Known about the structure:
By secondary structure, the protein is mainly β. It contains one helix and ten strands, in the order E-H-E-E-E-E-E-E-E-E-E. It has one helix at 20-30, and strands at residues 5-13, 36-44, 47-53, 58-64, 68-80, 83-93, 99-104, 110-121, 126-130, 135-138. The model has no long low-confidence stretch (mean pLDDT 96). Bound molecules: zinc ion (ZN).
Amino acid sequence: xxxxxxxxxxxxxxxxxxxxxxxxxxxxxxxxxxxxxxxxxxxxxxxxxxxxxxxxxxxxxxxxxxxxxxxxxxxxxxxxxxxxxxxxxxxxxxxxxxxxxxxxxxxxxxxxxxxxxxxxxxxxxxxxxxxxxxxxxxxxxx
Length: 142
Ligand code: ZN
């Protein structure tokens, strides 16, 4: 485990039409945050979420081609190969209030999204490829 101090909060709105994951990553890079946490809510024009198959060790994508509410979207900011990498999970609701959720993939188009980036002070956690899970993971820190 690594402990951080809360340094600052950044809040704003994404442009309509951008990809949710890439748009949030761009905002994190814009403010220079390398360790922190992201929260977002709003509406999407469509969504792509992933489910990690623990046997095959890969993500299956689920596609939603309809307007959706972001009930919540949150995740962490860390570093992979010197680049900022966001790991976000999302809960989405349809017009009946039915909810789905999973790992946020590229391909979710923003209609209106408000976000909050919590900036932590201190060295960022780094991701490295893990052979067991075939994912980019943080090292366990004793
Ligand atoms: Zn995930």
